[in-house]
Each structure stands twice: as C-alpha cells, then as structure tokens.
Amino acid sequence: MRALSVSRRTLPYVGIGAVVFFCLVPFYWMAVSAFRRPSDQFANTLLPSPWSLKNLTSVFSSTNGFGRALLNSLVVAGTTTVLTLIIGTFTAYALARLDFRFKNALLAIIIATSMFPGISQLVPLLKLFTDIGWINTYQAMILPSLGFCLPLTVWNLSVFFRQLPFELEQAAMVDGCTRGQAFRKIIIPLAAPGVFTTAIIAFIAAWNEFIIALSMVNKKEMQTATVTIAKFTGQYGFDQPFGTQMAAGIIVTIPLVIMVLIFQRRIISGLTAGGVK
Amino acid sequence: MTTLTTESPAGASAPAGRRHRDVQGTGRLAVLLLSPTFLVLGLVVGYPVLAGFRESLYTTGQSLDANGFVVQGSQFVGLDNYTAIFHGDRATAFWNAFFNTTFFTVVTVTLETLIGVGMALIMHHAFRGRAVVRASILVPWALPTAISGLLWRWIFQADGVANAILHHQVLWTADGNQSKVAVIIAETWKTSPFIGLLVLAGLQMIPQEVYEAAKVDGASPWQQFVRITLPLVKPTLLVAVLFRLLDVLRMFDLPFVLIGAHKDSVQTLTMLAWNEATNLRYGSAAAYATVLFLYIALVAYLFVKLLGADIIGQARQHKSRKAAA
Questions:
Q1: How far is B232 from chain A (nearest CA, A)?
Q2: Mean pLDDT of chain A
Q3: What distance lies between CA A167 and its chain's CA centroid?
Q4: What letters, b where the CB count within 10 A reaches 16 and e where it falls short, cover A212-242?
Q5: Which tens digits make up the pLDDT trace of B37-76?
Q6: What is the predicted ipTM?
C-alpha cells in the first residue's frame, strides 16, 4: 500500500523528467558542442572541457557572411510578419464577426491553401521570378512566405477574435461610434494580445523557412540564416564544420527560445487555438 | 448613464432597422475585408498551382526534335512529362520517392501520435513543474527544421555521440536504411511536442466530473482512458494528426540537411521535384509537384471523409460544443 502511494507520488515527476529529457537533450548537445574547442570537437564529455568561445567567434568570421545572413532573415521574417498581420487582421475580423454567405467555404479555402505542398507553389514562382529578374531579392522570399503565413495568421486571429466580447463593440456603436471607430477603439486594444501571439508564431514560421530561401537565392549575400548555416564550409576542405554550425544554430535559436520562454503561455494558447477551440 | 437611459427608448425601435441595414452593408464590408487576403493567396498560391499544372504540360530548354534538330524554348508536350515519370529509370526514382514519402509519413505520424499523447497525459497529470515542461516542449518546435537537421547530423556522425552511446559503428548519414531511421528519429523528436500540446489542450477541456462518475462506477484507469479520454480527445487529435500528415507528406528540409540531396534512401517527392527545378527542368518538376499535390489532396480528402476530422468545425462549432460539454 505504501509502496503504491510512493510510486503514485513520484511517477508524475519521472514522467515530467522523461518529457523534459526527451525535448532538451539534443538541444543541450548542440549547446555543449558549440562551446567546445574546435580541436576537441569530437569529445563526448557531458560538459566542454575546457570551455571555448572559438566556435562562436568563427561563426562571425568574414568568410561565412553570417551577420549579413541574420540581417536577411530579420528583413524577410519581419516583413512577412508585418504584411501578414496587416492583411490577416481584417480578414480574420470579418470571419469572426460578420455573417455573410459562403463564410465557412471561404474559411475552408484559406485553411486549405496552407496545406498545399510548398513545392507546387515554388516551381512556377521560381520560373516566374527568374524571368522577371527577382532571383536574389527580398521580395522573392517574402511573397511565397505569405502563402503559408497568411492562412496561419487568419485562422489564429479569427479564433482569437471570436472570443472577444463583441457586446462592447455593439454598445459603442449604440453610443454613436461608427463600425470603424468601434473596431479601432474597442476591438484592437482587446485583440492586441491575440495579435501579438499570432505575430510571434508567424515570425517563427517565417524565420524557420528553408526551401523558399534556398531556391530563390543563389548569392551568398542574400541568403537567410538557416540556408547560410546549412551551407557553411569548413576551414579545411571538405570537413563539415560542425562546431561552427552548432554555434550558429545556437545563435539563431536563442532569440526564439527566449521568446518562447517569455511568452510560453500565449504561444501555446495560440498554437492550440486552431486545434481545439 | 443619463444619456444611456434617455437614448434607450429610441434605441429599442432602432435594432430592427439597423439589423436590416447591417445585413446589406455586411456583405459589402466582408468583401472589402476579405479581398486582400484572397488577392494575396490567389497570387502567391492559387496562380502558381495553376501555372504549375500548365507548366507540367510543357518542356523547356534544349531538346532534339524528331529530325535531330535542336529545339529551343518551351514546347507543348501534353502529358509527356507525366508518362515520363512512370517509365524507365524515372519510374524507379519516382516510386522510390513515393514509397519514402509514404513510409516517412506513416511511421513518423504513428510515432508522434503515440509519444505526443503520452506527453499530453503526463503533462495533464502533473501538478508541479508544468511551467518547466511547457517551456522545454516548445524548444524542439521553435528550432528551425534546417538547424535540427544539422544537429541530428552531428549526433549521427560516424564518430558522433549516437554511435558512442550505442557502442556500434553505424554510418547513419550514408545512403541506406539506417539513414531512414535517422530521419524518422529527428522528425519524431521535432514534432511530437506539437501533437502533445494540441492533445493537452483537448484533455483540459474534458470536465473532471466525467472521470469522477466513471470512478464511482468502478472503471479502471485503462477503461477510463479508452472509454472517456480517447473519444473525447479524438476531435482534437484528428486535427493534429491531419496537420502532421499533410506536413510530412511535403517533407524536404530535414532529409535534405540531415542526409543530403540525391540520396535514394531518403529522397522524398518534394526533393525529387526540387532537383528537377534546380536543373531548370521546370516542366518535369511541375509534373512531380502536381502529382504530389494530388496525392496530398487525396490523403486529406480520405482522412476527412473516413475519420471525420472537421477542421473548420473546430472553429465553427465552438459555441455549440461548449454548450454540449
């Protein structure tokens, strides 16, 4: 009896430990590898000994062009997020609030577009952008990214918007606000947390994008960080410079992880909003 | 307050008229608000898909005509690009990629669902340490797929940590069945937490009283899980699984970075199409993309029809389901 109650008390902790272990161990290995000296890159000790920042500094060596790649990622993901929010907010508002014909059909179309395989969108756009000279431009990466960010945004936002107390909006309109004013003064401040969450999720999705950036750009200066890191070349010929890549991976991921840690509650409610609500 | 009360008699008669006006105005407003999204989606998704279909009926670049003359530019070839896929060497490559894609999808989605549901149950029953789990479970999700590909490539190096733990020399990233395993492990690691999160949200919507009633009736924990938890969490789970299915079917980044391009053992349909496109054979690339598109559409259709995953319904029936619960 006693053994049972002890196991019942400890079991959840074992489970939690297992989940945390599962999720973090590979990431931990990436961090540890980033802080080893390049000379003991293949050591399998649990902690780097001695610690070294050499991998981190060599990430930013001029041959890699990593700083520029980070800037490119920021421009592409940032612009995509802003555009998708501007366009998506209005649509999500309409889907959540207004009653009109074909509403569900339209929502279904928007969701369906997010499930299209990226490659069937990419091939024709690649040809088109080659023809009009858009290869190696930001817009060649931003526009296709809207294709997967926009449905995500519209869906997330429309779920958030549906939960807002729209009686307030009606009250404001009774008190003489126009629909636009009611939207601006009542709904936007209330919707801000949802919009913010959606922005984070859209930004992470755009930041992590790979195949579009890989295909639309062949000039090193225009590559985004994910592509640049995958293409890092070693100092000594054909060796894949894993230490440097792990360090770069850490640099690219740390901002995301910090965002995730700060806004975990909101991100989770945003991620699951589409699924359950 | 006074203004409100003085205005209410006038307001009482207003709703009928306002509602009528609203319905007419609403349609126009809806069109106005929806059109930017549809314009953008039409341009960046709708047009390319249709153009891709048209492209798949043409061949580009240099080719020799029947008399041995070099022909430049794009030529209408009908369904030749499609028949080419299913003949000779290309057929082997296609069916290989088709098999890989399907195999990865079935195996990873099954594993992810099992692990994800397990994670969700653990998190649901944990009272302390929830914040830690929640934070750590988002790490694999937030990590860019390409970076996670590199990470696992590093772990699976010949003299890497995976082999050190196994005490075996497995050449994970060489071409072969072991590289399939590597891709499956990496993919499962990255995406099980996503299913876990969605299912956890579903679990949290099940009212506790249902379990209490079951306990009073003498249901064992296993019975409770099979008879209560699973059916009630099913709608959420189906949506999560559908998302994962459609996502794995178009897999590219992970095998591309983890194993590499042109490796038969992990070549997916997207990779095949991508290879063609980067070799400027747009017609044939578009044909592969169209086949993949139809395959994904078929899977989505069957999944929704047979299992009744109701994605929009999840959003649409929010109110009625809440009332039912």
A1: 11
A2: 84
A3: 34
A4: bbbbbbeeeebbbbbbbbbebeeeeeeeebb
A5: 999 999 888 899 888 888 888 876 555 566 666 666 677 8
A6: 0.86
Every domain of chain A and the residues it spans: 65-231
B269: Cα within 13 Å, side-chain hemisphere: 30
Q: Is the pLDDT of residue B143 over 50?
A: yes
Q: Is the CB of A24 less than 8 angstroms away from the CB of B136? A: yes
**Two tokens at B151?**
């990470």
Closest residue to A87, CB basis, from B27, B40, B252 = B40
Contacts of B19 in chain A (CB under 8 A): none
Q: What CATH superfamily classification does A65-231 receive?
A: MetI-like (1.10.3720.10)
Confidence class for position A235, pLDDT limits 50, 70, 90: low
Q: Which of A88, A91, A147 sits opposite B44 (nearest CB)?
A: A147
- The residues near B294 (Cβ < 8 Å, ≥ 6 apart) are none
**Token representation of residue A183:** 């939207």
**C-beta atoms of A272 and B239 within 8 A:** no
Which residue ranges form the domains of chain B, and what is each CATH number? 94-297 (1.10.3720.10)
With contacts defined as CB-CB under 8 Å, which chain A residues touch B151?
Answer: 26-27, 29-30, 246, 249
pTM for the predicted model, two decimal places? 0.84
